[in-house]
Design a protein that fits this description.
Elements lengths: L1 E4 L3 H22 L7 E5 L9 H5 L6 H18 L9 H7 L5 H4 L5 H9 L7 E4 L2 H9 L6 E10 L12 E5 L7 H5 L2 E8 L6 E2 L13 E10 L3 H10 L4 H5 L2 H15 L5
Helix pairs in contact: 3-4, 7-9
């Protein structure tokens, strides 16, 4: 991981523009695919990149354990909501999680269901990213809880595909093409999961075990830290482009949060 301190939003934007230009240059030079850059904002620069499952349920260590958990939760959720998800029976899921090739060669079971759970607060092994620097900045600055916030930039592959030992931790990405809650689309979401087989079954691993450890052409991560004092300027720029709590969440709480930010933060100098 490359850690870079910047003083302003403008300086961050220049760094990201260079990374985007470098990506396009590599694609032209190598005549191969380079992953779209993904972004993630965190309101405290001291926080690690961890999934909500790592933070709130560290005892759930295997895919099979998690599949059992969400299988139990599913009928309870569906009792109170109009949504229905097509999730295979648990015996199939348990067996799926014991075979190495399944993760790469078959669809991830219940991906649409996992995305819904991630966006509504249920502990998830998915680390959520956005394809928009601006949206990542919103999540970094809206409730900044430290003197500095962090904006992460992730590049999965840079032209040569992915390689690595079969028993080593690896990052697998899941793209945007899934039928899910509108938040998934509003936030331009993509996701990664870090996992390890190691003689089976599939189990979860920490993303930090992978970033930049294999070679210079995959799983690259940049961590940019900015002063939280940029908050008012950044939120004002984002709101002017309709990136705010309401556009990203579209519920009553988000509407009130957007109004409060506009009146108490962005108009602060006028009060």
């Amino acid at each position: 991981m490359q850690a870079i301190e910047v003083d302003t939003w403008e300086a961050l934007s220049e760094h990201v523009d260079r990374l985007q230009s470098e990506r396009m240059d590599l694609m032209r030079a190598r005549h191969a695919h380079c992953s779209e850059l993904l972004f993630r904002g965190q309101r405290n620069s001291c926080w690690k990149l961890q999934t909500t499952l790592e933070r709130s349920a560290p005892n759930v260590k295997t895919f099979a354990q998690y599949f059992r958990l969400i299988s139990i939760a599913k009928p309870q959720i569906e009792t109170f909501l109009p949504h229905r998800w097509d999730l295979a029976d648990y015996p199939y899921l348990e067996k799926w999680a014991t075979e190495y090739d399944n993760l790469k060669l078959t669809p991830f079971p219940g991906y649409d269901y996992l995305v819904y759970l991630r966006h509504h607060g249920f502990p998830s092994p998915l680390l959520d990213w956005t394809r928009s620097l601006a949206i990542a900045a919103y999540f970094g600055f809206e409730n900044a809880s430290d003197d500095t916030v962090a904006i992460y930039v992730f590049s999965e592959v840079r032209g040569w595909g992915k390689a690595g030992a079969s028993n080593a931790p690896q990052i697998v990405s899941f793209g945007p093409y899934v039928r899910s809650h509108s938040r998934h689309f509003n936030q331009q979401s993509s996701y990664t999961i870090c996992c390890q087989f190691d003689s089976g079954p599939w189990r979860f691993a920490a993303h930090d075990l992978v970033y930049g450890t294999s070679n210079n052409d995959q799983d690259l991560l940049w961590k940019f830290t900015l002063p939280a004092s940029e908050r008012t300027k950044v939120l004002g720029l984002l709101d002017a482009n309709n990136i705010n709590a309401y556009s990203l969440f579209q519920n009553e709480e988000a509407l009130l949060a957007t109004i409060a930010t506009r009146e108490l933060v962005l108009r602060e100098k006028e009060l």
